[in-house]
Amino acid sequence: MADVVLRLRIESKGFHTDRGTLPVLGWIELTLGAREIVAIVGPSGCGKTTLLRIIGGLDTDFVGELQWFGSRLPRIGQVFQEPRLLPWRTVRENILLAQRDPRPAIADELLESLDLTAFRDAYPSKLSLGMARRVAIARAFAIEPELVLLDEPFVSLDPAMAERSREVLLKAWHARPTAGLLVTHDRDEAAALADRILVLGCRPARIEEERMVRHPPATPRSAIVRR
Amino acid sequence: MVQQTESGALPWNLAITLGRVAAAFAISLLLGSALGIAMGRMRRLDLWLDNAVTVLLNLPALVLIVLIYVWFGLNEIAAIAAVALNKLPTTVVTMREGARALDPALAEMAQRFQMPRWRILRHVTLPQLAPYLFAAARSGLALIWKIVLVVELLGRSNGIGFQIQIYFQLFDVTLILAYTLAFLLVAQLIEWVVMQPLENWAMRWRM
User: Fold this and answer.
1) Is the ipTM of this complex over 0.90?
2) Is the peptide bond before A217 cis (omega within 30 degrees of 0)?
3) Which residues on B lie below 8 Å from A80 (Cβ)?
4) What is the pTM of this model?
5) Is A87 within 8 Å of B205 when comparing Cβ atoms?
6) pLDDT tens-digit profile of A62-92?
């Protein structure tokens, strides 16, 4: 399979505490295609973020194997639960600093398409949460990623704002198609964004159900050209 | 004050004292920051040096000054070292708190986007440490102003501290006040011209 980006097999993953090891993740097998968006759905506190940290290479303390297809570690953009912007840098600087070599053209194009141009020189404290989330999305796509990780990117936004942010995200995805891994507790959100949904069970987390999503032609997701 | 300025005695002694202040300030801030940040990040080092810092923090300044003069002689290096060593532990304690307060979420973000080390230091770490650095610099400067005079009084033959000692022996309150006033003016000038603009610049994002 030439268009597989990553293959992950976790046998177990635990957190070490004073009273022994607390199992967090059980047997999980996951394959991700080059332009595929997979959503991982499950209740909170079930190890979804831990799973993302493993995939992102931020946590290597697990039993199993993470295999990247391609000659090197891919560029990974991430949208965290909180925007995690540098408060002392402007919106535009935040995006440029994430890029390996600053590419102002890409940053400005993303700011434009995410409706943020008017705020490009503002400090993050001047932004609403929804706007800060959009900046975080722009930042993740500005590094021209091969994989985008999204960790509950729209949690604590009101439904209208979340809906609007989803559209913005799909727009960014449309312009720069990449593989994506979305972690969320919201099944509707997963259905709106993903091609495939993995439902996670709890303690230790394992995949209980796998579902393909068929996007009717009129929905935003179907507009994305794939493969 | 005018008379002392015209004779050149005041500017000369003031310059000497300022030189010592600058040297001691630079040494204690650089060394103290490096040590404090390292202790804040490395638990072992912190456990190892914590007692030494506490002892140094509570040791009376006078004892430290006298000991250093006795051990290393009445020279310029000993004088500056005595001042710097008095200031060092407070810088260490302040910067250690700063290093402990670094946001792990931002560190993870920087790691995720594979930022180069110098970029992390300049754009992620240092801005978080800036308020602590300013606190350390301010309190440090205030402490150094005070201690440097004692050091001069005890073991140097020039500087404001030495002059004040002479005029104390002569009971010349006017000249004591003249030297004190000149000293306070310089301290205030540094606050206005250096510290405040620098702090405003570093903290402009909070406006």
Assistant:
1) no
2) no
3) 105, 108-109
4) 0.79
5) yes
6) 888 787 776 567 788 888 888 898 888 888 8
